Amino acid sequence: MNQVLVLNSGSSSIKYQLLDMADRRRLAVGAVERIGESAGSVSDHAAGMDVVLGELEGHLDRSALAAVGHRVVHGGDRFRGPTRIDDEVCATIKELIPLAPLHNPANLTLIEAARKAFPDTPQVAVFDTAFHQTLPVPAYTYAVPAEWRDDLGVRRYGFHGTSHQYVSRRAAELLGRRPEEVNVIVLHLGNGASACAVRQGRSVDTSMGMTPLEGLVMGTRSGDLDPAVSAYIARRTSQDAEETDRVLNKASGMLALGGSNDMRDITRGADAGDEGATLALDVYCYRIRKYIGAYLAVLGRIDALVFTAGVGENSPVVRAGAVAGLEHLGIAISPKRNAAESKEERYISPYWAQTAVLVVPTDEEIEIADQALTLVGGG
Ligand code: AMP
Asked: Could you tell me the pTM of the whole model?
């Protein structure tokens, strides 16, 4: 029993990986995309599950399948770790739909489909929010009325937890220490982006909030913003709250400032002297730098600053921009190490630096598979 199937559903996609955990090998990797978007495409997540099953034929050994691991976006304050899925857990994920109206329904449909497809295999939910359930009260509390906080669940939850957990643990290993011995700041810079302050293996602050909109500038999300902007835009234009929410999530960030949500286009544009792209890059890096400063204050002392995800792993320009001017805080990078292209975990700080600056490729699927297997008693 050493196979684990990891399922990760977005609002219109299903990504899957079948792993052999005996040697941590990928047996099959794939995605079903544009679900429900047009006639001719896969109609819903249940139909998508059938496509996945077809693609797994020849790789999947049902008698060796120890668990199905599901990435679930929002666990609210109800889930603090990986959870064996039963009817009650499904009902709770359903109750949390108002907090994640696009993602939790898709996650739920796929869970139901997978339970039908594998009725005898344990199913495990791994929540994007779970790692951040250790945030102290002052870090997760918004200064809003008690009814909003108590009755409506308005607070910071944080996301990318699986990635922050995996990357912070790998960083400790790279330093030759145990996670409980180190403080690290993780910068997960992908299409979505968030920073996380990790004290001795536990998340103590993170930049995403009640939803993934808060914090760093992202591909299409604004990140931090005066909350009064929404009401202002509603007064000045015909846009209602739903439309403003869509714009802040899908039509802001790097796309709005620099004309593309892909950092490769932005850096090429900035290189060629494009003003929008240059502005986008400056705002992006400045916001990261501000969070590094904030989390240094939160943690007091850090052992490592860690870059991960698509941008963090691949963009020397962003890494250099993010830490520019932080030498007096003990944070510096070696231009040569930073410029070297690699898919490996590595140091990019110079040998003399006080604080290690690392690049650690994230691997959410392996982390989900590990957590699922551990929970069901394998691994
Ligand atoms: P992720 O969400 O982690 O898959 O990251 C996706 C994002 O990574 C893309 O939208 C790009 O902006 C960025 N990215 C991928 N490869 C590179 C690269 N070589 N240089 C800069 N950015 C990259």
From this structure: 0.97
